[in-house]
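User: Continuing from earlier, I have the next pair ready.

Assistant: Great, send them over.

User: Here they are, in order.

Assistant: Folding the first of the pair now:
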Amino acid sequence: MYFTYDLATKRPSDYSDGYTMGEFLYRLHFLAPLNQIGINIGRPFGYTLAGLVSFIFLFALISGLMLHWDKIKSNFFVFRPGNKWKTVWTDMHTALGVIGFPYQFMYALTGIVLIVNSVLIIPFSKYLYDGKEDQVYEALGYSDNTKYTYLYEPLTTSFKMGDFLDKLESKWPNSHMNRIFIKNYGDKSMHVVALYDADIDKNFAGSGKLIYRVADDKILFEKSAAENGSYLDYMKGFIYRLHLADFGGYPIKIIYFVLGIMGCFVIISGILIWLVARDKNNIPKRKRIFNFWAANVFMASCLTMLPVTAMTFIAVKLATKVDQPFIFHVYFYSWLALGVFYIIRRNIGKTNLETLLLGSVLSLAVPIVNGIKTGNWIWETYRSGSNDILLVDLLWLSLGIVGLLIFKKMLQTAKKENANGKKVTGATIKSHTKYGNSSDGDSTTGTGSSLPPKRAFALKNKPATEI
């Protein structure tokens, strides 16, 4: 049984009814929603796919660093924002990629361990535990599968879980509860197994365990979370804390977020560089078309996530009932509709501009809607010390402001390029008309003058395309 209890409304709910936006984003980042589409491969499909992506990501990081090392050494401190778009993308890709490499490497590696640990455990379970994976997880401290003989006699000793947890809290003041296992509930052989983690500011990787027999009020096993941890404790704590950033408070979380955004820029700029490098006259037209469509699908899928996520935050606040189906329908249907629209439109430059504008406006609307519906305005949450709500509102506010500033800069650049495009002479137009191929940009002469393809994605190509 799974249920949550809302202390404000004093009402319990199951997993679907108690579903929140935080739970959705947490599960989405390792593709858990894909587990529900019914693909049976013996393991949860979403988790397996997320683990495969982590492997590919780790391979791309290592191979990318090795392949481009010579250029990285010479171009790391070079940034030329005034040059053509490909140069800007290349400089940004190089600098941000190297700066964020340690973080991305750590995140991919720890993600592999956490997401596909079941695959990594299979060899150990087969050769060391005779194929019994439950024993492996128990040895790693993830569960307690100890069997206690059921006596079929009612428990006569009174037991209150609240009092038991209060005693543990006073016994281990510098730790917090992780899990509670109740064995043989109501029987004379009833046992309670409590797993505790040490507070991060007291012990980086400590974990505690207590086994309590209710009938005679006896502690059968006790290990304090405040004591020096074992090798297993430190390895588990090291991997978890590095991946989840649950150490160092908000400064570490903000640093993780900024480094994650840098990784997004590296991936997007890499797609654009890859497309420009393959959109040349010596490449067959069918391959150029395929390359464009691949980049077009990738960019539409990625860039539409910003406005869709902001819109879902707003929908959650405006809806009268929010549960798992509601969040799934709002997010995935709007993402599908917006993604398909920009894929069919076939203009990566406009996709970038319009999703940035839409995402920025919706981002600014998130804290406003939150304030109107709940009264949790930014100044109110700051005054009351509601730091979690305050941080989320400030995040959306920052995304909206930065996005609008970038949008304004891009429009200024586009106007400047449009002005330069109008200076093209009539002779140049005739030359392009005579020798160029307006459909795909191939040139039939050796002069090197040809029109950019109509599917051009950079704003810089727009004037020439219009001509």
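And the other member of the pair:
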Amino acid sequence: MSDELEYQHDVEELERRSATAARLFDVRRIIGGLFVVYGIIVTIAGLTASDAALKKAQGINLNLWTGIGMLALGAFFLVWLRLRPTAPPPVAEEER
């Protein structure tokens, strides 16, 4: 009986680790993080744009607007991840 309880405890521990790994490598976290990082870089490039670059783009600061858009999209993915976390996969009764 002790071996069965130990086995069940080990299975539950592995299920908990699997759910943690699934949340850690969620695609929304990776996409959101990359968009935020690149959005910061592009926004900084837009804030430091020269007059020649603005003139070339007909007075529109493309880097600034693109960076802000990337920051917004990255924030959306990260907020989405926070509001709807990944649910652990259901465990079938046959596997127990």
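Worth noting for the second one:
The CA atoms of residues 35 and 73 lie 7 Å apart. The chain has a mean pLDDT of 83.
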